[in-house]
Amino acid sequence: MTLVEATKSCFAKYLTFSGRAPRSEFWKFILFMLLGLFTCLLVNSMIFGPEFQYLHETDENGFLTGRTSVRKFHSSGFVGNIFLLGTLIPWLSVTWRRMHDSGRAGFLPFLPILGWVALIFAITIAHMGFSNFADAMRTTGRANTQVSGTVGLIAFVTLILSVTINIYWLNQASDPQTNKYGPNPTEVLS
Fold first, then answer.
1. Of the given ranges (3-7, 27-31, 116-120), which has the lowest mean pLDDT?
2. 20 to 30 A Cα–Cα from 50, which one of 59, 79, 177, 185?
3. Would you call 129 exposed, middle or buried from its count of C-beta atoms within 10 A (0-12, 13-18, 19+)?
4. How many Å apart are CA 162 and CA 116, to the nearest integer?
5. In sequence order, what DSSP letters do the residues of the chain get, joined into one string?
6. Is residue 44's pLDDT more than 90?
7. pTM here?
8. Who's near 41: CB < 8 A, 6+ residues apart?
9. Residues 6+ apart with CB under 8 A from 83
10. In terms of DSSP bridges, do strands 51-58 and 64-73 run parallel, antiparallel, or are they unpaired?
11. Chain centroid to CA 103: how far?
12. Closest Cα to residue 53, out of 30, 75, 70, 31?
């Protein structure tokens, strides 16, 4: 399966979460997404130019010192966000079908990610308290908290483990026979 065939297949099965997807289809769609994001970065930079972040320095008491530093960076920005929005559902569906291909439930790659998000949320709530968290979200839309090194290390290790498990699962060989999710897609394509 070529990159173009894999991309066409993923968009043709836009909302298809049943069946199976071979390894080549999944990884070539991931390659398409990476190439697309790189292209979006170039296009966004040509259209909108670089982004600037102005950092106003403060002293130890929190008062402005009058010094400002500027950070210039390029991002995929608006163009990249549109691209990601258009490829989100095909990515979810091909990931779901890829898991079916190795005989696993389609939701499994998303469990470690949800677990990691829940861990970060629990750490924030435990540190700030629910009422302070709710007040911060209501007034500023964000909750800033400082985390100890141990808790940060646990969150980081959990993230690395979840990414590693996902890559391992998604790189497993196809179930050679027909499984409960359908026939082997490499035999169907031949």
1. 116-120
2. 59
3. exposed
4. 8
5. --HHHHHHHHHHTTT--SS---HHHHHHHHHHHHHHHHHHHHHHHHHH--EEEEEEEE-TTS-EEEEEEEEEE---HHHHHHHHHHHHHHHHHHHHHHHHHTTS-TTTTHHHHHHHHHHHHHHHHHHH-HHHHHHHHHHTS-------HHHHHHHHHHHHHHHHHHHHHHTSPPPSS-BTTBS-HHHHH-
6. no
7. 0.74
8. 74, 75, 76, 80
9. 36, 37, 40, 76
10. antiparallel
11. 23
12. 70
pLDDT digits (tens, 9 = 90+) for 76-93: 788 888 999 999 999 999
Query: Picking from 42-46, 74-78, 98-102, 144-148, which range would have the lowest pLDDT averaged per residue?
Result: 144-148
Give residue 170's identity as a one-letter amino acid code: L
Ramachandran category for residue 66: left, alpha or beta (phi over 0 → left; psi -120 to 50 → alpha): left
Residues 9, 15, 20, 26, CA torsion sign? positive
- CA 76 distance to own-chain centroid: 15
Is a pLDDT exceeding 60 seen at residue 190? no
Q: What is the dihedral of CA 123, 124, 130, 134, to 10 degrees?
A: -150
